[in-house]
Amino acid sequence: MPHASSNNSTLTNNGLNINPISSADTFTSQDDYNFNLSGRSSFDNNINAVNANSTQAQSLNSEDTMSTMSYDSTTGYGLVNAAAGVARGIGQNTFTDVADLGGNSWNVDMVKAPEVWARGYTGQDIIVAVIDTGVDYNHIDLQNNIWTNTREVANNNIDDDGNGYIDDIHGWNFVENSNDPIDRNGHGTHVSGTIAGENNGTGVTGIAYNSRIMPVKVLNDSGSGSISSITQGIYYAVNQGARVINLSLGSDFPNNSLASAIEYASSKGVVVVMAAGNNGLPILSYPASYANRWGLAVGAVDRNNQIADFSNTPGISQLAYVTAPGVGIYSSLPGNQYGSYNGTSMAAPHVAGVVALMLSANPSLTDAQVRQFMTQTAGNGGQNPDVGLSAGWLADEFIAEIARNPAKFSTVNFDDSAIAENQTIDLSANSSTPASSVDLFSNANINSQYRYYDSSLQTDNNNSPENDQTQDIQSILERFQQQMDELRQWFANP
């Protein structure tokens, strides 16, 4: 989810569908665009206007894995700390501080990655899938860290490994159904540089600079992607050996198939890192909201560890939410170029990199354990634990929204004919979807957000267009009821 950038130049599975989290990234160049599925984009160039499991181990509940003592409504568990998190993962105390790298690597210093490198953990042997607009796998800072499918023989037009994808040597392009996941947009390449840019004295050094990037292209060159492609990309990444998945994309509403894909990843020991969204609201987009059960949600802070005004925050929901640098992040762009972007899309890959460091130190860690260690060692950066959100503010916004748009709440359209099976959702700046504003309930028509069914689905043979949409609607209503119940508790226990 990029927001603004100063720019020098610009992923299938064996079965499901999903919805991308737009980029909360800001480009301070003419390449600004929205990764906007539903109006709650984290790749929104107008975002500044918004302001203001081995199974048992992975089923640890929030009481087991996260402490409310260090959690607040604005920064969640706070700034991710690689030194403390990786040390905890191998049963040690936090690692000793080392000298800062400085310059364009201030963000790497901020999450204390060099302290981990000094101990010999650099992401080696860990595959990180970047499910995005593709990756420029020829980039000088990435070409040596691109995943290679060693079970496939290149260019023989045979599916040598029998995974259903012919000649998928360096990932898959679900947009064009081809074996070339090249990035002609820039977003996926920028994300990849933050995770695994090579430590070669040139350009950018990634958080886990010896990890390997698996390019999974699910968004086209304009930033549009089908629900089916994104979900299939998750399954592909898991089944091909990724241990970490970065999702710098999203939407407003829940999706049953997306949730199933993330749960599948978690059950296989894969950690899914999800950008929180760029609306500046005290509620997370999807799939980041699924961090209440799996993976990690990531908000953006600046170099002073202040929450970015565009970053979505957890609000009244407690989940595995941490923060990472997401303002002015310098990284790779296609064509051996570099540029600085803003957004929760830029924050998420910092955390994906830290997870890769943790797994390189202790490959046996489960999703639940990574969630636990990451949240327990993060440093809450807010001066006041409850700065940023009050129950009164949220209630006022809710009431004001009803007053502004009374018809919206009485005429929500659940017509099931709006989106076809392989219709794409336009995430580009030219999309007809208006720029996001402080609107808690915009885009109530779920047809413009979710309509999916993958006829090649193998993981869940019970899915059908009708059943999936019914389950999604039920999820939306249940989520809304849960949040209203939590809001009432705030009033009852100020």
Task: Report on the architecture of this protein.
The active site is at residues 132, 187, 345. Belongs to the peptidase S8 family. Residues 123-384 form the Peptidase S8/S53 domain. It comes from Calothrix parietina FACHB-288. This is S8 family serine peptidase. The chain has 494 residues and is an alpha/beta fold. It has a single domain, classed as Rossmann fold. Helices cover 27% and strands 11% of the residues. A 7-stranded parallel beta sheet has the order 4-5-3-7-8-9-10, sandwiched between helices. Helix 6 links the parallel strand 4 and strand 5 (212-217). The radius of gyration is 20 Å and the shape is globular.
**Highest-level CATH class:** Alpha Beta
| Major sheet description | 7 strands, parallel
* CATH architect. name: 3-Layer(aba) Sandwich
- Please indicate the percent range of residues in DSSP E strands (runs of 2 or more): 5-15%
Number of domains: 1
CATH superfamily: Peptidase S8/S53 domain
- Uncertain residue segments: 4-65, 381-402, 404-466
What's the arrangement of strands in the largest beta sheet? 4-5-3-7-8-9-10
| CATH-assigned fold name | Rossmann fold
Query: Distance N terminus to C terminus?
Result: 34 Å
Summed over residues and divided by their number, the pLDDT gives a mean of 74
Shape: globular
Instruction: Give, in order, the helices and strands.
Output: EEHHHHHEEHEEHEHEEEEEHHHEH
Counting DSSP E segments of at least 2 residues, the number of strands comes to 13
Main structural class:
alpha/beta
Percent range of helical residues: 25-40%
